[in-house]
Amino acid sequence: MQLIAKATIQIQKPIEEVFEGIINPEKMTNYFISESNGRMETGKELIWKFPEFSVEVPVKNIQIEINRSISYVWDKETVVKITLEEQPDKSTVVKVTEDGKPYNEANLRWALGNTEGWANFLACMKAYLEYGIQLRKGAFEFMREN
């Protein structure tokens, strides 16, 4: 049995804007990461930094389908896939799945934590893209490494 972390949200923006909000580090730094060494592009390898952690996270095996999906590896055991679905009202449903970990107690905690994390990612992205609000700023100061 493989464990999967997943979350879904509907964003009241056209699919092109949502897609750009995910691949463009100038937008992502407003709701998710603190730094990236480039845009997400197929075949590219990136380094992401997060505001609450001092670690650099390598992002590899990036695969892009313009305005449809983004996938990458940032944990050697899992693949993150973000899919976009345009709705009749021109809003966009965003689905995130991260899978690949075998079932055990430690990985069950991983699945629960990452499901929570992806739900937060989507809520922060929605707030930023729809209203320009940065929900993540200051939200995780308690996790900051000293």
Give your account of this protein's structure.
By secondary structure, the protein is α+β, with helices and mostly antiparallel strands. It has a 7-stranded antiparallel sheet, with helices on one face. It is globular and about 40 Å long. The relative contact order is 0.25.
- Overall residue-averaged pLDDT value: 94
Judged by helices, strands and strand pairing, the structural class is alpha+beta
Largest sheet: 7 strands, antiparallel
Computed over alpha carbons, the radius of gyration is: 15 Å
Q: What is the helix fraction of residues, given as a range?
A: 25-40%
Q: How far is it from the N-terminal to the C-terminal residue, by CA?
A: 37 Å
Shape: globular
> Biggest sheet: strands side by side, in what order?
1-7-6-5-4-3-2
- The proportion of residues in beta strands is 35-45%
Multimerization status: single chain
SSE string, helices as H and strands as E: EHHEEEEEEH
The number of distinct β-strands equals 7
Helical region count? 3
Which residue ranges are poorly predicted, with pLDDT under 50 across at least 5 consecutive positions?
none
